[in-house]
C-alpha cells in the first residue's frame, strides 16, 4: 500500500479533508495576520514619535522658563 493510502486508512478521508481545509485557511490567514500586526506596529511607532516630539517641546519650554 502506498504512503497516501496508509494515511487515509489511519486518519480517514474526513480527517484528511479537514487537515487540508485547515492548512488552506492558515495559508490565507497567517499572512493577513502578519500584515495587520505590521500595520499596527507602524501606527504605534508613529504615535510614539509624535508623543516624543510633544514631550521634547514641553521640556524645551520648561528649560526656557528656568533660564528666564
Task: Walk me through what this model shows.
- With 68 residues, the chain is mainly alpha-helical.
- The protein is 96% helix and 0% strand.
- It is rod-shaped, with a radius of gyration of 28 Å.
- 0% of the residues are buried.
Produce the secondary structure layout:
Layout: H1 3-67
- Tell me the structural class: mainly alpha
Tell me, briefly, the overall form: rod-shaped
Question: Could you tell me how far the N terminus lies from the C terminus, measured between alpha carbons in angstroms?
Answer: 91 Å
Helix content: over 70%
N to C succession of SSEs: H
Largest sheet: none
Strand content: under 5%
Rounded to an integer, what's the Rg over CA atoms?
Answer: 28 Å
Summary keywords:
single chain, 68 residues, mainly alpha, 96% helix
Amino acid at each position: 500500500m502506498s504512503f497516501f493510502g496508509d494515511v487515509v486508512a489511519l486518519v480517514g478521508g474526513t480527517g484528511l479533508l479537514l487537515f487540508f481545509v485547515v492548512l488552506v485557511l492558515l495559508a490565507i490567514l497567517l499572512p493577513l495576520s502578519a500584515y495587520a500586526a505590521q500595520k499596527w506596529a507602524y501606527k504605534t511607532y508613529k504615535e510614539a514619535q509624535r508623543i516624543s516630539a510633544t514631550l521634547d517641546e514641553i521640556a524645551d519650554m520648561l528649560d526656557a522658563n528656568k533660564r528666564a
